[in-house]
């Protein structure tokens, strides 16, 4: 598994831009800030990362099934008891299975299962958690959990 580095820079009040080392950028802001639109919220980016990772992996794990029209919809479901976290994430793989492949459903289901059990780093990290360390400007750790 590769390691990644993303730089997130403040571009205005409650406006941020994330950049990778290859030059890609994505804007983030609060969804209730009309002046910052179009943008993603951080939670939307997490959900997009799950959908994108799932799609990239399914392209390999289910390549025996034509899935050019696949659409992956990722939704968060939370309630007050979730204490500021996403309570549940639903990932829906939507497309019509090809009629000319009698094993298509089985092959595709295996690909999706392998995506979440073994190959999608984003989904596996969300499912199992990751250690977080917040480093302050003076180099000390301000939070670890």
Automatic annotation (TrEMBL):
Broad class of enzyme this protein falls into: oxidoreductase
EC identifiers of the protein: 1.11.1.-
Keywords (A to Z) from UniProt: Oxidoreductase, Peroxidase
InterPro entries reported for this sequence: KH_dom-like_a/b, OsmC/Ohr_fam, OsmC/Ohrsf
Entry GO MF terms: peroxidase activity
UniProt protein name: OsmC family protein
């Amino acid at each position: 598994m590769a390691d990644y580095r993303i730089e997130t820079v403040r571009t205005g009040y409650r406006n941020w831009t994330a950049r990778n080392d290859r030059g890609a950028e994505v804007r983030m802001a609060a969804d209730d800030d009309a002046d910052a639109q179009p943008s993603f919220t951080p939670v939307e980016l997490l959900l997009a990362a799950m959908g994108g990772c799932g799609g990239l992996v399914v392209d390999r794990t289910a390549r025996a099934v034509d899935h050019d029209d696949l659409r992956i919809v990722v939704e968060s479901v939370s309630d007050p008891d979730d204490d500021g976290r996403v309570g549940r994430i639903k990932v829906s793989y939507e497309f019509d299975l090809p009629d000319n492949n009698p094993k298509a459903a089985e092959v595709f289901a295996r690909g999706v299962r392998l995506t979440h059990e073994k190959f999608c780093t984003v989904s596996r990290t969300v499912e199992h958690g990751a250690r977080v360390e917040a480093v302050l400007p003076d180099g000390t750790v301000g939070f670890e959990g």
